[in-house]
Amino acid sequence: MHIPTLAPDVLATVHGINITNTMVNAWIAIIIFLVIGLIIKRTAAVRPTGLQNFFEFILETLLGFFDQVTGDRKKTLRFIPLVGSIFFFILLSNWLGLIPGTGSITWGGKMVLRPANTDLNLTVAMALVAVVSSHLYGLLAVGVFTHIGKFVQIKGLIKSLTKGPVAIFTAIIEIAVGFIEFISEIAKVLSLSLRLFGNIFAGEVLITVISSLVVAIIPTPFMLLEVLVGVIQAGVFAMLTMVYLSVMTTAPHGEEAH
Amino acid sequence: MLALAKGLTMGIGTIGPALAIGMIASKAMEAIGRNPEATGKLFVPMLLGAAFAEAIAIYALVVVFTLK
């Protein structure tokens, strides 16, 4: 039994860049997307058939779910290139990890294939892209000062100086809350990346252990569970990215609204 | 000792999130039972709630990873 280690194995080193087994899997996913994209681009028609029909159905379903988060189809369409890509990439790379051969094909004693999301580097990168782009969109949508004002609430303190001691006290508390908001931005990256990593890594270990105990039949329900986990984790990651994007692009409440 | 600490961190740290996710799911099931037509509307908020509750368990996981 070879339980996957926390860090991915390095298969080769090219010009100082380590090629890991998770990277192999990620690139397989990217190539599949490229091929599907090129095929659909070539055969795209106003009246969809076959493959295009299938993907249009999936995209429509996805748009429906994201509409529930943003509450506005325009906003959904604005963010779908980023969030949709994240969703499909996570989904496909999770499912690629369930194909037989993952973990069992070895090269020099190392696994050649390993689910891309069992690499913390990848999930942290995606979480950083999600959170940083939510801030960039926020800066564009509500303006630089309004956006920074969400975290550093000095404006409220200056305004409160004319309103007496209670208002000043509230403003100071709001500054502290703004500081906590700042920390929660870091926690967003942490929880987004580690949720995906933890779930997929745990699934990989679970399947390895179970299939080393019993060769056939018994691992099947666990594989089915992992198929489900793959969809749900992709959905959760994309949904939370959408929530962050739509929260950041909404103007903050006026001071009366608290 | 280290293994024990890791085990205890995970074990104790996940009690709260487990209860939270159980409550979220049970309330959602209850709501679906009362009003089956709301299933589609309930799904996304339920998933989001569960994701935020799960984040607490992830902090425990982070601590376990940093224990050396």
Could you characterize what this model shows?
- The complex is a heterodimer of chains A (about 260) and B (about 70).
- Chain A has about 260 residues and is mainly alpha-helical.
- Chain A has eight helices and four strands, in the order ββαααββααααα.
- Chain B is mainly α.
- Chain B has helices spanning about 1-15, 15-35, 40-65.
- In chain B, helix 1 runs antiparallel to helix 3 (about 40-65).
- Chain B starts with a helix and ends with a helix.
- The mean pLDDT of chain B is about 90.
- The interface of A and B includes residues 68, 194 and 240 of A.
Helices and strands in order, then pairings?
The complex is a heterodimer of chains A (258) and B (68).
Chain A (H helix, E strand, L loop, with lengths): L9 E5 L2 E4 H23 L6 H21 L2 H24 L9 E2 L2 E2 L8 H23 L1 H6 L4 H7 L4 H49 L5 H30 L10
Antiparallel strand pairs in A: 1-2, 3-4
Helix pairs in contact in A: 1-3, 2-3, 2-8, 3-8, 4-7, 4-8, 6-7, 7-8
Chain B lengths: L1 H12 L1 H20 L4 H28 L2
